[in-house]
Amino acid sequence: MLESLALLLVCQMVGELLVQFIAWPIPGPVVGMTVLFLLLAIRRGVPEHLRQTCLTLLSHLSLLFVPAGVGVVVYFEAIAQEWGIILVALVVSTVATIAVTAFTMNRLARWLDKRHG
Amino acid sequence: MDNTLTELWVYLAREPLLHLTLTLLAYLCGVKIHQWSGQSALANPVVIAIALLVGLLVITETPYPRYFEGAQFIHFLLGPATVALAVPLYQHFSRIRSQLLPITAGLLAGSLTAIVSATGLVWLLNGSRETLVSMAPKSATTPVAMGIAEQLGGLPALTAVLVIMTGIIGAVTGPLLLRWLRIDDEATRGLALGVASHGIGTARAFQSSDLAGAFSGLGMGLNALLTALLVPLIVQLI
Is B125's Cβ below 8 Å from some Cβ in A? Predict the structure, then answer.
């Protein structure tokens, strides 16, 4: 558990440091995820303790968004001016994105399956 | 209120412990209500927890920075949790490799849809330029989206709110929409949730299966990169 947490934090830190050297706005943790992925690929497997810790952390991923979500209160006035436009644009765009992504992947996968028989 | 009780409250409200505990309790409350509702997508634990906490902050007149002093310990775990996504990603890598083409096509189509439909709608409805720019990166994960908005002259703080709202809308409507569209492949469902609504969508995907979660994490990561690439190009055109 402690080893796994340390490993996750080290990967995140390496990610944060690497981000300092590139001019692209990628978050450190996303680079950290890539670092851990490469480590796992080199090691050819996931240690059991790491798997346990990661699954525990990820099964409560929703909880981790609550503090930032409460921050909506602070910027309520910024939304309030154009709230109608914002709400329509957000709902329509998000629903469309889910539908288009799923539909494209689904159709192409089926088409490729058929072609390979 | 009784004097000693007020003193007790004043003491507690200064400590990070109070708001850390309240955040956990509000979330547990959300999980319970979600279970009672028969796991209805509309009773999303995150939405319930946020509503409860916002209500509480308003009633007790607590400023957000004070709340965050306690809640930051939970917020901090987002970093390691993002790194942890590497594990399911690695475990499902053979599946990802075999579906590289459909994943890439879905990601490209979804990312373009997210940016063009959001900016296009704000433009059509005569929204301000500031709102338009702040809205463009809304499907990317928060730090990426805020960076893009800042670079292009939007309001990063507004973007942060829009990103969270996008995540919640996706997590609430996504599962219903995908069932209605008869998409029952867990990998496809995961990717769509991750591309459209980043980490909050990924959190929702993990609730249905490990495979959906892995693909959602993949969609979130790749869409962050693609959005950073596409938004500056598209915003220039409008």
Answer: yes
Question: Which residues span the domain enclosing A104?
Answer: 68-117
Q: What is the ipTM of this complex?
A: 0.89
Residue A33 and residue A6 share a domain: yes
Domain boundaries, given as residue ranges, for chain B: 3-76, 83-237
Residues B142-181: tens digit of each pLDDT? 888 888 888 888 888 888 889 989 999 999 999 999 999 9
User: B45-51 — which CB contacts under 8 Å span 24+ positions?
Assistant: B45/A62, B45/A63, B46/A62, B46/A63, B46/A65, B46/A66, B46/A69, B46/B168, B46/B171, B46/B200, B46/B203, B47/B168, B47/B172, B49/A63, B49/A66, B49/A69, B49/B23, B50/A66, B50/A69, B50/A70, B50/A72, B50/B168
Query: Are A3 and A50 in a shared domain?
Result: yes
B46/A65 Cβ within 8 A: yes
Clarify whether residues A38 and A72 are in a common domain. Answer: no
Query: Is residue A24 predicted with pLDDT exceeding 70?
Result: no
pTM of the model: 0.86
Residue that finishes a domain, picked among A37, A59, A81: A59
Among B74, B91, B188, whose Cβ lies nearest the Cβ of A102?
Answer: B188
